[in-house]
Amino acid sequence: MSDRNLVGIVLVSHSAEVAASVARLAKKLAGGGAQVPVAPAGGTEGGGFGTSAALVAAAAASVDRGNGVAVLTDLGSAILTVKALLTEGGELPDRTRMVDAPFVEGAVAAVVTAATGADLAAVEAAAVEAYTYRKV
Amino acid sequence: MLDADFFRRWMTTAAASVDREAERLTALDSPIGDADHGTNLHRGFTAVASALETEAPQTPGAVLVLAGRQLISKVGGASGPLYGTLLRRTGKALGDAGEVSEEQLAAALREGVDAVMALGGAAPGDKTMIDALVPAVDALGDGFAAARAAAEEGAVATTPLQARKGRASYLGERSIGHQDPGATSSALLVAALADTAEADGE
């Protein structure tokens, strides 16, 4: 099966380990999610905690199959960097969208939904909906 | 009138100031932040100074857009996209004129500060860089020295405030009693502008 039409997912965290681990977790929990292009963009280029605009842009380019890219972030500079890049224009693939979702739960929902071949709006809706799943 | 060289000197003066004050900024960021503000801004403004030297932008707008882009890509913390947006949006508002008036700079900076508020969602009184930048822009009509004084007063006035944005907001009332590092670095940026104008005899 080709992944040409699947929505790409980028996971931006202050920590490289968190981003990479959540990416693996989401693909694992998604079952068929192995086909979904998912890229972590964690930490700074120097390997520290923080956000790298270059790593975010590279991750987004690597998962872009022409059908949109959903970007999920953790906190602070991750959110602000992605927003600033989207405002700038030209740095991220066309039809890249920042998704307002909880990082882990949203990533799982986004990858599961993207694996079905859903479009960007549906992937975003699924990730956002993860906010409504109460734990208690 | 202010030309590209004026804006280049503003940025290199700011870079020197951040270099000098990096330890103080990081110290302010220790009790209420993650103790990286000085280091992060230092990395960013070092990249700004170096990019201005190699790319030699020819208009005021181009200087600020280049500086802003460097800050977004090099800082690594929240201050990168925030200061980057401030300078880039101000630069875009200046357009491609070879020289701009002080009034044009004041209007453009207002757009830049508005863009920072839109990006971060902070309003005056939230204990952020906005508490130095808004008074500075308001005072800029009375000259660069007035803007510097307003920014410094605004930064000092963040001490009794409770943080409502950023990492410090998680501390709730415990954020009270500390001067905000972002407001402090914003005052440095405005002071660098006033220093540049004074050196010119503006």
Descriptors:
heterodimer; A: 136 residues; alpha/beta; Rossmann fold; 4-stranded parallel sheet; 4 strands; B: 202 residues; mainly alpha; Serine Threonine Protein Phosphatase 5, Tetratricopeptide repeat; two-stranded antiparallel sheet; 2 strands; transferase (chain B); glycerone kinase activity (chain B); DhaL_dom (chain B); Dihydroxyacetone_Kinase (chain B); DhaL_dom_sf (chain B)
Question: In terms of topology, how is this protein built?
Answer:
The complex is a heterodimer of chains A (136) and B (202).
Chain A lengths: L7 E6 L2 H14 L8 E5 L10 H11 L5 E5 L2 H13 L7 E3 L4 H13 L4 H10 L7
Parallel strand pairs in A: 1-2, 1-3, 3-4
Helix pairs in contact in A: 1-4, 4-5
Chain B lengths: L1 E2 H29 L4 H19 L4 H15 L4 H16 L4 E2 L1 H19 L9 H10 L4 H13 L24 H20 L2
Helix pairs in contact in B: 1-2, 1-3, 1-8, 2-3, 3-4, 4-5, 5-6, 6-7, 6-8, 7-8
Any overview of this molecule?
The complex is a heterodimer of chains A (136) and B (202). With 136 residues, chain A is α/β, with parallel strands linked by helices. Chain A has five helices and four strands. The model of chain A has no long low-confidence stretch (mean pLDDT 93). Chain A has a domain of 79 residues: Phosphotransferase system, mannose-type IIA component (Rossmann fold, 3-Layer(aba) Sandwich), CATH 3.40.50. A four-stranded parallel beta sheet of chain A has the order 2-1-3-4, sandwiched between helices. The longest helix of chain A has 14 residues. Helices cover 45% and strands 14% of the residues of chain A. In chain B, α1 runs antiparallel to α8, α2 crosses α3 and α5 packs antiparallel against α6. Chain B is built from eight helices and two strands, in the order βααααβαααα. The model of chain B has no long low-confidence stretch (mean pLDDT 95). Chain B has one domain: Serine Threonine Protein Phosphatase 5, Tetratricopeptide repeat (Alpha Horseshoe). Chains A and B meet through α3 of A and α3, α4 and α5 of B.
